[in-house]
Amino acid sequence: MIWCWQVAEGFHAAEAIHKLSRRLNLDLPISEQVYRVLYRGQDPGRVLKALLSRPLKAEDEAAA
């Protein structure tokens, strides 16, 4: 068996985005769910259902 000590691109960025969004009180649902899969071990199917069950809203509502 050959060991490869590389990390997938974006792995560390997911944690940094998570921390920054918390500090700035930003709602970043996709990034939050990616973080939960990578760092909390949540099931990808479960987080996909969580994303798809969110109520729809206009993109400019977040800025209001």
What does this entry look like structurally?
It is globular, with a radius of gyration of 15 Å. The N and C termini lie far apart (54 Å). It is built from three helices and no strands. The longest helix is centred in the first third of the chain and has 13 residues, at 11-23. The chain has one domain (11-56). The mean pLDDT is 88. α2 runs antiparallel to α3. The protein is mainly α.
The largest pleated sheet is described as: none
How many beta strands in the DSSP annotation?
Answer: 0
Shape: globular
SS strand fraction: under 5%
State the helical fraction: 40-55%
Order of helices and strands: HHH
The whole-number mean of residue pLDDT values reads: 88
- How many structural domains does the protein architecture include? 1
Total of helices: 3
Briefly note the structural class of the backbone: mainly alpha
What is the gyration radius calculated from CA atoms?
Answer: 15 Å
**Low-confidence runs of at least 5 consecutive residues:** none
